[in-house]
Amino acid sequence: MPELRFNARIYKKEAVQEGISAYSHLAKFKVKDNQDYIKVNIENIDSEVKNILPGEFANYVLAMTKKCL
Prior knowledge:
Strand order of the largest sheet: 1-3-2
Oligomer: single chain
């Protein structure tokens, strides 16, 4: 199960939620956040995208962070 960590000083929680909404049909996401990081665990990833989903999700969150600024 991949875990992605987004620095809370850079990334917006709203952007992470947008990413989860966009990719929820491909995996199950669990979010835990604290003052420093927004941690996202990805489970049950569709086998066709298992190798690329974490990177694509992170790219999407980055793009959404820029939109949320």
